[in-house]
Hints:
This protein is an alpha/beta fold. The chain has 11 helices and 9 strands. The chain is globular, with a radius of gyration of 22 Å.
Amino acid sequence: MGGTERDASATPRSPELSDGDAALVEDLLAGSHRALARVITRIEDRAAGYRGIVAALHEHTGDADVIGVTGAPGAGKSTLVDKLAAAYRERGDTVGVVAVDPSSPYTGGAVLGDRIRMASNVGDMDVFFRSMSARGQLGGLSMATADAVKALDAFGKDVVIIETVGAGQNEVDVVRTADTVAVLVQPGSGDDVQTLKAGILEIGDVFVVNKADMDGAERTLAELEEMVHRREGPTKGLDGGHHGFEVPEHPDDGGEERDSGDGDGGGGDDGDEPPEWTPEVLRTVANTGEGVGELIETFDAHATHLRESGAIEATKRRRYAEEIRTLIRSDVGALATAEIERRGGIEALADSVRRRETDPYSLAAEIVEPIAECVDSDAT
């Protein structure tokens, strides 16, 4: 595009693996926690070569149970995740935790990244905890988070837990990374339940009333049970198999909706849908560990359901489809950004529109045209 030099970081590169990165991958696969930490740092920073690392790890993934824990701030997610990790360790499982914290407006890093967490698991090398920045992504998840989960999976962690920020309906993003999603609700919080009614209901496989020793817990449990039953009614079409609801495409895709099952109705082939999972409603008191064992049993039951019904394959297909879309949008966007800079920057282009020398549609077409020509030439 014009033959001028551009910032290499702005231009997508093939996921090639250098000798040093290949050695780093080998060390991670051999069980080096130091290598795991370095890889996740590379992933979070989107440092040069990270794509080759993630690509090399992909064939080693697919064994971990990935659990998303979401809910409004104050619901006790961090305390519950701490107790979950301890309980998993008691039964011999290794655990990875990715806690997605709000992004600092100054550094882009995790605001809560330095807080003391996972107190029950301090010093346990088989519990790997990492606090990551949400990087402004809706739902508190970023592509870096999904890649970090892959690193933990490839490392050999039996269970990977993702703790999200808790940003209401936009938490649907967690579905694209987790196999099982637990939604935490605090007792007596009508606003939380209203948030669930607004749309977050469809993402939950398990609903947890945490702090169940507080006043209002029974009422909240009853309200959640009622909403789960409603899920079998008017919203049933939104729940084909595991998380088989329709998700709007990227805003740039014209606002069309897509079937998140990628043509298979969220289930098996030839229109055969797997049996649906009816979400469980449980109670926990994270501070004391009450209910944690039953919650893990429910996670196990859901994982078994996904495998035995075949829904896990549809889930993975949808997840990879969304990941491909996201990467392509990002890469094409980077190419377009580089072309904008070659033409003097976005402000210069905006000034030309302001002066009526051109219009936004014509400019967009001119900028995308070289990319389209490259695609067309490769196709012929």
